[in-house]
């Protein structure tokens, strides 16, 4: 009975260290800190190790030491305790003489290994991954005692490991609970599937994550859709323009309409009339305009707008020509979903057709059609119409088709020098392969 008790205790010790290790590497500080702030002593002890990479390194090292010694002792003790009696049983029951010891060793080794894998590895690992917070709180005190007991051995092991890393040209770093943007996006998606996040919450968080990868070119209103005023416009025409249009800010261009010189605010025009009772001079009320490159990412644009206390900037291409306009509302729409924007016309919704195709506006962003893409569409184009132009290499006529990553695109309508509508044919669903 004592032998069985020792075997069970060794498997239990192995299970303890396995559970503690998986709980520690699965837990994030944000889940433990609220409990610690409420005065939970177990959470405070656990947070002490999780919030510091080097302390977490020692914590995991203690788990590995415990797993190693419990496994080795279990194997040695099991063979010493059960090997000879079981070999005698094989000799008497089956007449085995020379091979009894070898057969006994093999059977006990397999039995102990399977038992330890199930009860000492798989079960505690599953429990720790299912509820890492509770597991971490339960195991924290045994682990603190283990850290004290193994401290000298951990110093030797970590010191040896760090020395080897330096010889290999690597800098030793502690464990850190950090995630890449791709991992965070996957976590948000899984949280949405699991019901932890509402669909609109997941979409907003996913949009915020994309800001660092979204260039301004994909957010801007293109130049052809911007209403501008010439610098030499008369005061009467300026007032009429302001009263007839809903825009509160309008860019001012030179006589040729190429260079953007500044911005005129409706409020300034009206204040000038109210206060001076005279037609305002455009040069007097025109405000300075800011410029940003197309390649600037959305997160950097947000910082730029905040630093300059601006709500609107002009976007320029690599040649210095104005290619569009972007506002703070564009950034908010990217994070919070579509919002009304004074500089954008009402977006045309995708129109499903009876033949299975879908009619999209040519200015629809590429990522808004990704539902039909098995692979990312390579190219520099930001819009669906731009992708068609980039693929064909010429200005197409209505009815021309092209294939992009297995998706058929057909030009539906061309207005001026722009593709206004594109017909998208989703790829056929793959039939499941036979087993």
Please tell me about this protein's structure.
By secondary structure, the chain is α+β, with helices and mostly antiparallel strands. The chain folds into four domains: 166 residues, no CATH class; 32 residues, no CATH class; 120 residues, CBS-domain (Roll), CATH 3.10.580.10; 75 residues, Uridine Diphospho-n-acetylenolpyruvylglucosamine Reductase, domain 3, CATH 3.30.465.10. It contains 15 helices and twelve strands. A hairpin with a 2-residue loop joins strand 10 and strand 11. Helix 1 crosses helix 6. The model has no long low-confidence stretch (mean pLDDT 81).
Total number of beta strands: 12
Count of alpha and pi helical runs = 15
Question: What is the typical, i.e. mean, pLDDT?
Answer: 81
Shape: elongated
Structural class: alpha+beta
Low-confidence stretches: none
Overall structural domain count = 4
Distance between the termini: 50 Å
Beta-strand residue percentage: 5-15%
Largest sheet, in brief, is: 5 strands, antiparallel
Order of strands side by side in the largest beta sheet? 8-9-12-11-10
**What is the element string, with H for helices and E for strands?**
HHHHHHHHHEEHEEHHEHEEHEEHEEE
- Gyration radius, in Å: 34 Å
Subunit arrangement of the protein:
single chain
Helix content: 40-55%
């Amino acid at each position: 009975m004592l032998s069985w008790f020792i075997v069970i205790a060794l498997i239990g010790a192995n299970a303890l260290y396995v559970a503690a290790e998986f709980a520690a590497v699965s837990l994030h500080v944000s889940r433990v800190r609220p409990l610690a702030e409420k005065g939970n002593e177990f959470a405070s002890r656990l947070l002490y190790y999780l919030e510091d990479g080097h302390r977490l390194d020692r914590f995991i090292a203690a788990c590995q030491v415990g797993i190693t010694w419990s496994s080795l002792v279990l194997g040695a003790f099991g063979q010493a305790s059960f090997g000879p009696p079981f070999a005698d049983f094989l000799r008497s029951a089956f007449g085995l003489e020379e091979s009894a010891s070898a057969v006994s060793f093999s059977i006990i080794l397999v039995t102990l290994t399977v038992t330890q894998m199930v009860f000492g590895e798989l079960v505690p690992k599953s429990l720790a991954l299912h509820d890492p917070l509770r597991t971490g709180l339960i195991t924290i005190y045994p682990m603190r005692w283990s850290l004290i007991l193994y401290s000298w051995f951990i110093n030797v092991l970590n010191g040896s490991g760090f020395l080897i890393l330096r010889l290999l040209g690597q800098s030793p770093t502690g464990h850190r609970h950090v995630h890449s943007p791709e991992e965070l996006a996957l976590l948000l998606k899984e949280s949405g599937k699991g019901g932890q996040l509402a669909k609109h919450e997941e979409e907003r968080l996913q949009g915020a994550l994309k800001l660092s990868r979204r260039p301004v070119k994909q957010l801007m209103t293109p130049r052809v859709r911007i209403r501008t005023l010439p610098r030499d416009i008369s005061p009467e025409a300026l007032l009429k323009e302001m009263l007839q249009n809903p825009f509160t800010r309008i860019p001012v261009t030179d006589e040729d309409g190429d260079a953007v010189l500044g911005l005129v605010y409706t409020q300034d025009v009206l204040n000038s009339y109210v206060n001076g009772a005279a037609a305002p001079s455009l040069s007097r009320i025109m405000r300075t305009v800011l410029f940003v490159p197309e390649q600037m990412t959305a997160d950097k644009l947000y910082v730029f707008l905040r630093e300059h206390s601006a709500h609107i900037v002009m976007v320029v291409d690599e040649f210095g020509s104005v290619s569009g306009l972007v506002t703070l509302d564009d950034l908010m729409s990217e994070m919070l979903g579509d919002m009304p924007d004074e500089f954008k016309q009402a977006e045309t919704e995708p129109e499903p057709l009876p033949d299975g195709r879908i009619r999209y506006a040519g200015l629809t962003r590429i990522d808004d059609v990704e539902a039909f893409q098995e692979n990312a569409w390579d190219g520099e184009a930001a819009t669906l119409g731009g992708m068609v132009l980039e693929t064909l290499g010429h200005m197409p006529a209505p009815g021309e088709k092209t294939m992009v990553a297995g998706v058929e695109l057909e030009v539906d309508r061309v207005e001026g020098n722009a593709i206004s509508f594109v017909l998208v044919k989703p790829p056929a669903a793959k039939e499941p392969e036979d087993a």
